[in-house]
Amino acid sequence: MSATTARITAVDTYDVRFPTSRELDGSDAMNPDPDYSAAYVVLRTSDGGHEGHGFTFTIGRGNDVQVAAIDALRPHVVGRPVDELCADPGSLYHDLIGDSQLRWLGPEKGVMHMAIGAVVNAVWDLAAKQQGKPLWQLLADADPEWLVSQIDFRYIADALTPAEALELLRRGKQGADERAATLLQRGYPAYTTSPGWLGYDDEKLTRLARAAVSDGFRQIKLKVGADLADDIRRCRAARAAVGPDIRMAIDANQRWNVAEAVEWTKALAEFAPYWIEEPTSPDDVLGHATIRRQVSPVKVATGEHVQNRIVFKQLLQAGAIDVLQLDSARVGGVNENLAILLLAAKFGVPVCPHAGGVGLCELVQHLSMFDFVALTGTTEDRVIEFVDHLHEHFLDPVVITDGHYRAPTLPGFSAAMHQTSLDTYQYPHGSFWAEELAQKEATA
């Protein structure tokens, strides 16, 4: 069968879970025992050629629901011509967010929207492989008019019109080749959360913070919010370990009420936190605005749980955030993240994406690199989160050199996992989990 007639023949889903709770990796004030997990999807094609890989991130049992949500989208995908799909991923994006019966569960938020993001990202992975380019380069090379056609401006046109988006993208083309060369040579700035998990003792925090500085990171992040005295002690230890010139962000993971967020952040101000992340509910636009006014000069950052472009629009319109933290797998995939990047560019707010998890570093690097090369043209006050977990399970894992993400060069979205990892950690029948279950039954 020729490439021109190839179609999507299957949407295969996998419930993949890693036992990160054993070492308290990923622990924070709201999530004390996460098992980093991925609801993973593979688009198969009739010609047996390239496949599209995507996923959304959960912290364990949420995979049960997330995989079912992806499965519900299968009828929209199977049978589509591959060439048409790759030429216009927005066509599928619109169909998925427009399914009225599934849309009722949102609209454009929650489990269904994350499922849509997984499938849409898999299409972009397939499209980038078809073009033989890493996704960041596909986006950077793309015609601005075509990129605008991929964006849904419904509900955001009062803040960003298609004409404004087109002008931003045309302007971003100026000097793009030189910036792409710089990116390939130097990489994109990163910061690390690896020292700062709430479950780590002070010795491990201090050791990892010092190692981060030695490895070239100019910013680290600590989880806070469970106990103020504990946070003061940990922030003091971290600041002593990294010195006065390294930025140190803090992250409350939505733990506080508004007044509590202000009080707690001010209590930690002596340690010069660069930003306070997720100080309250991600849906509370006005609460974030209040916090921002009262904790300055500490910056306010949020976004990993912001559910769609509409809430991001309101955060920007309300002057509620200093730093926008988009997530590659929370919203409706690349198409919606293009809208969010353009909103941030219009409002002049730097994007410092959420990463970590399972594969989020692998995905989100492409979005920030596109933003640098062909949209904002700068990395000033912009960093991508890095967490040193689970990269070995990916065929094209992130590479960090001197505190910078190296630009991916392999075609695709860096989303594909090793088959051996799927065979080992698929839940509940992968070899790791099957052995766990057998041991529990033997000792019961």
Automatic annotation (TrEMBL):
Recorded catalytic activity of this chain's protein: L-fuconate = 2-dehydro-3-deoxy-L-fuconate + H2O
Cofactor: Mg(2+)
Keyword Repeat attributed: no
A Pfam family this chain is assigned to: MR_MLE_N
Superkingdom: Bacteria
Keywords: Lyase, Magnesium, Metal-binding
Domain Mandelate racemase/muconate lactonizing enzyme C-terminal: 202-298
The EC number(s) this enzyme carries: 4.2.1.68
KW Cytoplasm (keyword) present: no
InterPro entries according to UniProt: Enolase-like_C_sf (IPR036849), Enolase-like_N (IPR029017), Enolase_C-like (IPR029065), L-fuconate_dehydratase (IPR034610), Mandelate_racemase_C (IPR013342), Mandelate_racemase_N_dom (IPR013341), RHMD-like (IPR046945)
Alphabetical list of PANTHER family matching this protein: ENOLASE SUPERFAMILY, MANDELATE RACEMASE (PTHR13794), MITOCHONDRIAL ENOLASE SUPERFAMILY MEMBER 1 (PTHR13794:SF58)
Protein name in UniProt: L-fuconate dehydratase
Organism: Kitasatospora cathayae
Lineage per the UniProt record: Bacteria, Bacillati, Actinomycetota, Actinomycetes, Kitasatosporales
